[in-house]
Amino acid sequence: MSVYQFLASDAMLATVENDKVFLFSIKEAQERGISFPFDEKVLSRINENKEYTVLYFEKREDLGKIDIYLEVNEDLAIYSMNYTKKKYCYTLN
What we know:
Strand order of the largest sheet: 1-5-4
Radius of gyration: 17 Å
Structural class: alpha+beta
Order of helices and strands: EEHHEEHE
Strand content: 15-25%
Helix content: 10-25%
Number of strands: 5
């Protein structure tokens, strides 16, 4: 089961970003000194430059904060367009 939540508006809204959670490539994470709970053999099978591979946070509680961002990607907007005719749709995470 999954949940899809969005906000719709005729006016553009401010985006909200959780500044406690980060997405890195393997290479970026290693450069920042982040260690991985598996060996180099596993890492060697992953493209080290592929963005958004590593989700990093310091405390589990930080995952509970909200992100609100404009749906500019058609893959996301296709879901909300069936429910609203508003000009701007925002995804909630």
